[in-house]
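__Record contents__

***
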Amino acid sequence: MSLKNKQVKFSSLRKKLVIKLGFTYLLALLFIILLIIVKNTLDFNESIADIQSRTKASLVNKGMLLVENNSDALIGLVDDNAFTAVEQIVTKTVVSDDDIVYGVFSDSDHNDWVNSIEHEDVAVIKLAVDANARWAFEQIKAASKLINIDKVQVIEFAAPVILDGKILGVIRYGLSTIVLTEAITTANKKATQSLVQTLFALILVGIITLIITFWRTDKLARRITVPLNLLTEAADIVARGQYDHVIKIETNDEIGMLANNFNSMTNAINQTIADLAEINQVGEELAKTHNELQAFKWVLKGILKQLPFELALVFHTNLNAQFKLLTHYSSSNQKQQGDISSLLNIIDHHQGINTAIDNGMQEQEFITFQLPEISDESDYCSLVLIPFGQKNSKALHLILCTKHHLKNLKQSEVDFCLSISHLLTTSLQNISMNGLLEEQNKTLEDKVRERTNELNIQNQALTKTLIELEKAQNHLIESEKMASLGCLVAGISHEVNTPLGVSVTAASVLYEQTELFNNKFKNGKLTKSGFTSYLSDASEATSIILTNLERASTLIQSFKQIAVDQSSDVQVDFYVKQHLDKLITSLRPSYKTLPIKINLLGDDKTQITSYPGSLNQVVTNLIVNSIKHGLSDCVQGEINIIVNLANEQLSIIVEDTGCGIPDDIKNKVFDPFFTTKRGSGGTGLGLNIVYNIVKQKLKGEISLENNQPQGTRFIIKFPAH
């Protein structure tokens, strides 16, 4: 599909601008939000890790201090077996602190003196404490271990109670990490609230900014798209041919410049169209006129009609290098001859004009002269000097005068003048040529009449000569036919004499044998062996007579058919191969003593409607030519005749395996009287007659081709019906 036919859906530039800027802003906002989320997440994780680290350290310090202090406090009480005091200290410690889940004192024999548990599920806690007892007794100083009890993480602190190097027991406290977890949870909540508030504020600010951006972008887009729409509408109007449309866009930006340039373009197009119309009008008028002065008038009138001038003059320099006015034209048609003479006097003596013309002006060059440069004698304020082609090899110059101050001439106006000058040059050439043609036409009719009379006389002589040539050609063809027929008669006579002589001899012998047989029969001397011998001799003689008479009959019949066809050539239906077979039979006497074999190839059922006599003449001449010229010195030669019928066109190829025809004479073989055997009885008419019979009688074509690797091939083609 071409671009002209492709329909493109309209999409507003303003919409595109707003959407793309809004989308860009949203991407930037999302990127900022993502950065804030990542930054807050990293800060939050760092803060949580710090809180967790400090809280855990505080809890560990608290537990270690607790077991160490209680270990020291219980040394004397354990040594004195003060069970109650030990129980009170441990229990009071557990009850007084919410972080402590349990407190246990076990003596060196692993007997629990105190087992204080502050938890809803005492059995579970007791089970975990007992399971961890072995670890506690393995410590030689205060230590801690994190254990999980019923989905609650507990840090167990254990310290041995030692007196004089002897372990009296182990004090153990389990501190819950709930405070640590709650601290982390609280920190999470605060961080989440802070992030949500920040994101909310950022989204709110983003929405407000987006609205402001959309409003400002839409306002800017309006300032761009509204003038562009005006330009688009104006372009559509101009595209429809309304070049006088003006765009009213008063801005100091690129669109304003574009609008001004667009208006300038439409003005230039309007001016160009007007110039072209005027050029066409002038061209039409110039095509009609045959007068040079009238041609100059039409040209100057067209120039003043389009350009802001009042007077136009055309002149060239004469032999004395003086200006010669050819003609002038005024748009007001009221300029007096005296004013023209005064202006010409000013132009003739103006140094600047003379210098410009002497130096030679190029085709597109022009010079503007103002009033101070000319004279106070003229009413005109400005004039423009422009080269204006040639007339009779002399340079023409155009002077345009105006009563107004003229700064310069536009290039388009100069181009218009040049186009008009080209039309004028062509018109002057045509007028000059027309004058010459008119002069020549005056004598042309007499010359044509004389030439016509001469041609009539020559045509009559040529017609008479042509009739005589046709008669001579027909006579030659008939003579060639009779000559061929004479050769056939001589050959057939000789060929028929042989079987007839053999038949006569056999008949004579049979007669003598019959007389001898009859005498023996009458005298009664006939024997059985004599009777048998007579019958054998009679049978042999009869067979010889019949065979030779049939051969003679065949030769006579072939000759009879060929002679009839040769003498009375009418259009009939016949089988081509059978007909040519009879022709070859009749020609056999001319080559039977030579080492030559003739092969006839083709379909036996190929039947056409044509002239058998003409075909006989053509094939006979080609065969005789091959025997005399191509195969005269051959050891063993062949002539092939190939018959083929295709698309109602019969093709006969006659080719031999002889010496062939040299390349330098191939294009002459069909010329009359051309022969390479002139001293040996050749007339040079054989192939020329063949060519004429094929072209004129059979309405066909004949061509000569090489029969590689040796020999000659003639190809004959003519309509089968």
